Amino acid sequence: MRYAEYVKSVDKTLDDLMAESEARGEARGEARGVVLGEQQALFTLLAARGLSVDDPTAARIRACEDGEQLRRWIARAASASSTTSVFE
Question: How far apart, in whole angstroms, are the C-alpha atoms of residue 76 and residue 13?
């Protein structure tokens, strides 16, 4: 009987660990999705405003995973007269 209880507790511990790992993975995926959405919003806004994005700037946007920074760039892009002024 003790062995059965031990096995049950190990199974519960493993299930708990797997659930935590899955939750962390989902959270990372959601956060990455938000960043990708903000990156796309910035590209869309720049294009809609007629501001060209060269390859180094596009790479800089794609490399940025800081949501706050992306939102600052989006806010600047809303009224910027040039792409350069967005990233100053």
Answer: 49
Contacts of 42-46 with C-beta under 8 Å, sequence gap 24+, read 42/70, 42/73, 42/74, 42/77, 45/74, 45/77, 45/78, 46/77, 46/83, 46/86
pTM (two decimals)? 0.73
Q: Give the torsion through C-alpha atoms of 34, 40, 46, 52, to 10 deg.
A: 140
Tens-place pLDDT, residues 60-73: 999 999 999 999 99
Dist. CA 15–CA 38, nearest whole Å: 35
State both tokens at 63: 């490399």
For residue 24 the two structure tokens come to 């962390």
Residue written as token pair 């995926």: 29
Domain boundaries, the chain: 2-86
**Token pair for residue 46?**
């720049």
Tokens 């989006």: give the residue: 74
